[in-house]
Prior knowledge:
The protein is mostly helical. It has helices at 5-10, 12-30, 33-45, 50-55, 72-85, 99-116, 121-129, 138-147, 149-174.
Amino acid sequence: MDESKEEILKKAEEVIERAYxxxxxxxxxxxxxxxxxxxxxFDAIGIQNDDVFKSASGLADGLGLSGNGTCGALVxxxxxxxxxxxxxRKDFKDMFKPMRSYLLSKELHDKFLKEYGVCRCHDVQESxxxxxFNLLSKEGFEKAMEFGMVKYCxxxxxxxxxxxxxxILDEWELE
Length: 175
């Protein structure tokens, strides 16, 4: 991190708003909701980790563009939380070590659910756009782009990045 946790916490509202703005911007420009969420959270708080970012590559549109998994923006947020508060390999045998990341990810889940009412990608799409799209087919992808799907998903990514950043900063405040 370029700045200390204390410096980041002093400007928490600005950092949280930046996470939202970056999430929305990155999703519009690059797509890939899990990656754009991670990039927004990490950039807002000054973390660089290409391995975590890269590991989110297959998680867009509910896992592999299937639409049938948890929203990638939500999963990306949980990955950022896990990176910061999760169990390390050296503690692999300790089944209680990841509890902190479980609880924080559950908090993210609950806030996301309160915001959108659902967590499954196609359900989020139907909730926001009145329909879901098959992004694996050329025709489905083109229809999604014509419909303006990115406009909707960018707000979901911004929200997930904001919620994730709030949770991270709140947890840092307690340390």
